[in-house]
Design brief:
Blueprint: H1 5-65, H2 69-86, H3 95-100, H4 111-133
Length: 134
C-alpha cells in the first residue's frame, strides 16, 4: 500500500500528540500521587492531634468534676469552651452504628453539617428501633 507524505505527516502528528498526552497523563498521575501522600500525612497528623485533644479534654473533665461547687461556677466558662472544642473532634460510634455500618469516623467542620448529619442519624436510629420492636 502506498502512503502519501501528507497522511504520513498527519500520522506522525497524531503519534506525537498521543505521546504528549501520555506524558501529561503520567505527570498528572505523579502529581496526584504526591498530593495523596501529603493528604495522608496531614490526616495522620490530624488524628494524632485529635487523640491528644480528646485525652486532654477528658482529663479536664475529670479535674472539673473533682472541684467544689463554688470552683465549678468560676471555671464554667472554661468547661463551655472545652465542650465547644470537643464538638469538632471525632466521636466514638454508637453500638447500633458499629453493628450496621461498621466503624468509621465522620468529621464535619461546619455546625450546620453536623446538625443535618445528627438529624439523619436520629431518623435512621428511630426507624431501626421501630423495626426492632416489630
Amino acid at each position: 500500500a502506498v502512503v502519501s507524505t501528507q497522511s504520513t505527516g498527519t500520522l506522525n502528528k497524531l503519534i506525537r500528540a498521543m505521546a504528549q498526552e501520555d506524558k501529561s497523563l503520567d505527570e498528572l498521575y505523579d502529581e496526584t500521587l504526591e498530593s495523596y501522600r501529603e493528604f495522608r500525612q496531614h490526616v495522620d497528623e490530624y488524628m494524632t492531634h485529635a487523640t491528644r485533644c480528646k485525652d486532654l479534654i477528658k482529663r479536664f473533665d475529670e479535674s472539673f468534676a473533682a472541684l467544689s461547687e463554688d470552683e465549678k461556677v468560676l471555671q464554667e466558662e472554661k468547661r463551655t469552651q472545652t465542650r465547644e472544642m470537643a464538638s469538632f473532634l471525632p466521636k466514638d460510634n454508637s453500638l447500633i452504628l458499629k453493628l450496621f455500618v461498621g466503624d468509621f469516623n465522620v468529621v464535619l467542620p461546619r455546625k450546620g453539617d453536623k446538625i443535618k448529619y445528627k438529624r439523619q442519624y436520629e431518623i435512621f436510629n428511630s426507624t431501626l428501633s421501630g423495626f426492632t420492636v416489630i
